[in-house]
Design a protein that fits this description.
- With 403 residues, the protein is α/β, with parallel strands linked by helices.
- It contains 18 helices and 13 strands.
- Strand 11, helix 14 and strand 12 form a beta-alpha-beta unit.
- Helix 1 crosses helix 18 and helix 8 crosses helix 16.
Amino acid sequence: MEITCAFVADMVGSETVMRPMADLIERQGHKVLRQFALGKPAKLNRLEVESADMLVTGLTSDESRAQSLEIPAITAAWAQGEKVVGVLDVPDSAGRGATIFSSVAHMFTMIMVIVKEDVPMARKNFPNAQVVVVGSPEWERLALDQTTRSSVRESIGIDEQKKLVVVPGTKDILVNIPLFQAAITTVAEMAECDSTMQFMVALALHPGEVLTRKSNLDNILRQHAFVPNPVMEAAGKDEQSFYADLLLDQYRGSTDEIEKAARGFEGLFSSGAVAVRVFTKKMMPTEKLVVAADALIEYRSTVRVCAGFRKVPVVSYCAGEYARRVSMKNFGMVGYSSWEQGTYFDATDGSMTKLRSGLGALLEANNRKAKAMAKTQGEVYIMPKRLGESADRMANAAISLLG
């Protein structure tokens, strides 16, 4: 029996996880209708959703965007008596059923989660849904990627003597600015204290960041009484040149060396021992940078999973009250769930001292903490046997709802 499945997703992350499932269902001979916004403004094609037998939807972390695409799709499908399947593309996100999607949480037939630890929260917040653990096609891709450390280092022009610290950005500029600044300051202090150490700090911009959209800037201004001046002046700049200029403004005059060596428009400047470079996805995807990294400084980035598969040391640092509020809203916590404990050094309390001590220890050769972290990463992030395992589970679980 041929069935029709409508796929709706607001953000890039949801599409990345759902696309392999949609492709597989289509190869099985069923009809698939796709509405993937990829983080851009989109209007729901309600007729497509209403014509389907089942809706498979993402659950965005953006409350205002949920109201324009995914929530209307859920409401339309439910009104037609369709099965509604929700896909949570990151761990710890089942809390959205009690926040962003609380008005439609009862409409879900099935919720798909990546890890078994999310099952209790999903059952609590989506009371009528069957909860299934399916894994993640994106995690499989990251785990089985064949990119080598040497090839990435050659591509970005960094030799093996230099430590590469990767700092992945989020979709939110107000989280990124203090995170990037804290990382650069910490590495610069470490280089000052040890003249033998050479660093590159790679600021990896999130592909979903919407800095240049006027609507996004207006939303930031509406929600926050205090906004850094550079953000207010950002309209019309691309993300890479914005961050490069911001970094130069931040460090101009802070040390003679940085001022003298600044080559800012391209996002690259040097103090001799520390180079800082801004990367967009087009230049080098963040997960590729991680392959070549000696350490990762992040906050609430799924890139830590890639680091886990590669056994790259991770420091999780929460920079500021705004980042804490965003995390509480989206995940219900500032840190991470207990199942990930030991896969990262915890500096989520915002302590710069802790950030520096943690990073310093993890970069030491044969460090006990680094070895223990690598062991835990291997136990938590288990290598998949092949690509497609998760997509198989997702497709089979969804199709089973229709008998």
